[in-house]
Task: structure prediction
Amino acid sequence: MPDDYKTRLIKYIPADVVAVWVFLDGILRADPSTSAAFQWTVFGVVLALTPLWTWYRADEPDLPPAFHQIVTSTVAFAVWALALGGPFERLAWYTPSLASVLLALFTLVAPLVPFLAERCGRGVRRR
Result:
């Protein structure tokens, strides 16, 4: 049976990865000597680990998560990190309100990805 909207929302937002990011970002912010390069490196490492973590945490051990789930979870982490600030605050175009609006819209639309893909004729496997 295909997942409902709420289940897909929970699957696509990697809460455990976001929690690790909140923890690491707090440590980096607490040290005024932390360089922008180091902040971006930590963000990049967590971003790179997100697809692996999504695969590892898949509900069905014999079946890897769908490609769209991995991509959506990785983008979800990036959007959450953007909304939380971190190294993005050093960018000239960054505003918390823009990041918050993007987060809200992404959270609303992300669970619709399989539905939209099916409607566009791409036949994404639903989990």
About this structure: The CA atoms of residues 4 and 71 lie 19 Å apart. Residues 5-119 form one domain.
